[in-house]
Amino acid sequence: MNYKNNLYLFIVIILLGLPATIFTHLFFFLIDQISINIINYFANNILLIFIPAIGGLIVGYLLNYGTLTAKGHGVPLLISTIKSNEKGLTKKDLHYEGLATSFTVISGGSVGLVGPIIELTTGISDIIGRYLNFELKEYQIIIGSAAAASFSAVFMAPFAATIFSLEVIHKDWSLKNIFYTISASFSSFLLMNLINPGYEYFFNFEILIEGFGRNQYIFLIIFTFLISLVGWLFINTLVLSESIFSKLDIPFYYKPACGGLLVGIVGYFYFEVLGTGSNIISNFNNLDTSILFISSILILKIIATSLSIGSGGSGGLFAPMILTGLLSGFLVGKIGLIFWPAFAINPIFLALCGLVGILAGLIKAPIASIILVLELFYLPNLIVPIILASFIPFIILNLMKVRSIYSPELFNKEL
What we know:
Elements: H1 3-15, H2 17-41, H3 51-64, H4 75-84, H5 91-106, H6 114-131, H7 136-155, H8 158-170, H9 175-195, H10 214-247, H11 255-269, H12 278-282, H13 291-310, H14 318-339, H15 347-363, H16 366-377, H17 383-399
């Protein structure tokens, strides 16, 4: 590319912070809040059972008469686009992804918002890249940079966002790609700070660890095997659910409604599993409940997410994975304090280790997972335990031949 085209590319990359910030605000401060209000309003009301089913029926009709590629979680489509060496996203997907995700979340579907925000932002970048007729290499840089801008706007973690795009989406560590990706990440980070200086997706508090000795390392290593098992359970439950619903001999548009009805039944008894779970995540440091309740929410959240996505609902998996990792670590931490106090680790810190382990193992991004936690919580004295919590599940799940949860082949998201 000549100097003029490079300048155009850089301007486009910098401007990607704008749609990333807009979609983050739209989904987290409007759609998610509507969902929380609806769930809280109908809590303990029998009508709560039918709300996810109604949302699923609307989503089913939207996708059946729109585009089926907008169902499920959208990140595999981005990876498929990069791998195909073609300009593959469509404007039609952009419309229906936003609508389908909105109705899934508002009606209490157990999905996340990070994936749809990433897909919608990359959808905008796809339109721009094709309109300005960028060459394939530059088009792919724009796609990867848009993913980084979205991640950065959501988590306010520009370095982790850059590594996420390089490690998961683009898998291209060239200096040129690093430069543009980090430019997009900081563009959305600065814009988000400008518009909403106090915004934090995660909880904000200090983690006090008196000591991390040999006993704690033993406990942590045992936990990494447990979190690997949870990750295996998460992805296989998701695949099983999609397989069952794909074989169900009914019209497609009824399948998300059936999944929604089952989610509604689960949510009637444990309404905490409904929606994105952002209210639990953002107040996780105030979570003080029984081991039985935490165990129930953990298991039922995996089931509800699998039903929501597997039946054809539209949404992301980042928030369910985050909540699953946090609950797993917190649960094991509490059990450790009761039965093995000499080996136990602060449950909140172990919750972060669970988060790192789940993300590293399931999205195959151990470095991005480590940097995300370090960037959000600044824990330089605990970097070794965090590295262990990230790489051991990553290695174990790879040895178990578990594919990335974003693998296009795993969920029929190939172009």
